[in-house]
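Progress report, Aim 2. The chain analyzed during this reporting quarter is listed below.
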Amino acid sequence: MENIVNNNQTDDLDVKYILKIVLKYWYLFVILPILCVTVAAVVNKFTVQEFTSTASILIKGEEASLSRQFLNMNSNLFGGNNGEIDDEITVIKSNRLFSVLVENMNLRTETYIKKDRLYRLLYQNEPLITVFPQNFMNNLKGRLTIHVSKHSKGSFTFKFEMIENRVTTTEKHKIKNLDEPIHTQWGDFLFVEQQNFLPEKNKYNLKVVAYSFKGMVNRMNNQINVARSSKNSNIIVFTVSSSNAKRNEDILNKLMDIYQQDKIYDQNQISRQMAEFITERLGLISEELKDAEQKVESYMKRRGMADIGVQSREVIEKSSEYDKQIVNVEIQLSLIGMIENYLKKSEPTDLLPANTGIQETAINEMIKTYNEAVLNYQKMLMTATPENPALVRLLSQINTQKENILSSIGNYRRSAEITKNDLKRKSSNYLSQIKEVPTIQREFADISRQQQIKETLFVFLLQKREEAQLSLAMATSSAKIVEPAFTFIEPKSMGLRKMAMFAFIIGLILAAAIVYLLQFFKDKISSLEEVKRYTKLPIIGTLPPTKNIDYVAITSEKPTILGEKFRMLRTNLPFVMQHKDDKVVLVTSSVPAEGKSFISINLALSLALIGKKVALIGLDVRKPRLAKYLKVKTNPGITNFISEEGMSWQNIEQKLEINKNVSVFVGGTVPPNPSELLYNERLDLFIDELRKNFDYIIIDSAPVGVLTDTFILNRLVDAVIYVVKAGVARYSDVKHLNELAESKKLTNVSVLLNNVEEENLATKYGHYGYY
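Predicted structure tokens for the chain:
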């Protein structure tokens, strides 16, 4: 016996539901994976395997540079924090560096050889060298592709294809040998074979592609990826992929070398500037020192001085402390004057000599900050124009810093002049007290002091020039190669096995997606599980499809699948009745054509087969069909009984010929006011009379989705069988049924699923020998 089912949803039920859906569309889960694997195999066969090469470089802080350590310049101008690493990546990706790369490695052309219907990139082993016309590569604006075919007899076919400004021009030439150049509209092309790299059969198909300079620079810039190894790392990773691993590695190693040389050049700018400045000042100081020495020599000759007396030496020794201080102040004034003169003549973007010996810390720090700003301006100028707002603001800051340095130098000079005058005053006071010191000695002291100042400054500048030259000689890049270029063994593209596995999974995902979309856009009930998912109302039974079956399908207890389902419905019917004396069952649905009349007729016949007296009533009075389906008289009917008070229910009763236990009461004449007629008390009296004379009363009513007649009849019934036809009823109809049951518009509702496909139903029963 098929028990009445309540829908208490569980996870197991959902899993079963999903599995049934999958099994329903099993062919998608077979066909799509096979199709995807086939496509993957074809794609793999016609795809050139690419290899990925990688290299890495560490951007060190400025303190790592030996030349910077020697000059004690710890300005953090090159790397060291996240923002500066990003700046270095921008510099590496600049067209300026890639232009050097393309030029140095002669990357303007690429040669491909055709093997197994695929073109593979060659590098340093091309069987054919192309000699382009003079200035052709310099004037090339687009892309030239030359297809070369060498035939078995040694002849050649050349096809030239020029693309410029989206316009394609082609030429085709056939020649017997390569002795003579090929004359084209772009000039004379000469081709030379390299015997060491010719294929064994001496036949080949090549493709030579020549790019414009800018085009190749952009191409290489797009192919090479430059990025951090991790979010906060100072290591930059270079990556490039192509079908030729050796070419990848050479390109990456060359790019890193160009970048290192560029950084060394940047780092040596200050040292070069300082060396040039000191050399210039040494020439001037040398002349001044020579002049001071000549004055000392002339004075001594004029005065006849061969030796300094004891008294003179004593005076000089006692005043030597003041003299040393005066000399030091004079040196500082001279250095300040040099810097001031250089600063006034320099451009805003010129670097200033650093660490010149000025003892004023504030001025040294200002010069250091000024040089940092100038270097930053020069670096930004590589990737932006002078009109860039950021460059304009930075240039304004540089000019302001320059004015501040000049102001500080002026203040420092005035302070030094005051100090020098004070020292001279003290020295003069001391010397004036010594009456014994000859005038000649004092004059000589003045002259020799000037000589000593020039000599000390000259030696100091010589030392600084040597330091600058040594710094240039010891210059090292602040970028260290962590890992030279190497290539992964596995190709970038997946192998056939991996690709097939991936394609198989994609096929399964596509099948699942299609099934999901079919279910998502599906809006009609198709199975018992779907009914259970959308309603908690009891399910009284299910019926299989009944195509080409007469409306009177149950005529005996002969075993059939349909008869067995109606017997289950008959068995379950008492369980939906709430009271022992309940007899009236109303059959309805959401929309027409869901099988209400068919189910009403055959349910009545099934009950009659076990000896029950059944009244079958057609109360779809707007569209009465019961008489037509059972081939009985259409009049008189219930509408006639209600309208004519003298008529009894026996006057409209019709016994079925096939089973006398079934009495049929047809709808009768279609009234002009069906709803009002169904409210008539005679209908209530009619049902009460039938309750006394019949075991069951089956009412075939109108659908609730379009009419209110069924709700009017609800007062008369004990139970409602709501027919849901698979393929006709929508999910929204079942949800609407829940609302009707909750609002008590229908009494004691149970669901009957009609037209449901039950797989292996016949086989299941036939296995036990029932049919």
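The chain has 25 helices and 21 strands. Residues 7-13, 62-80, 760-771 have pLDDT under 50 and may be disordered. These observations will guide the mutagenesis work planned for the next reporting period.
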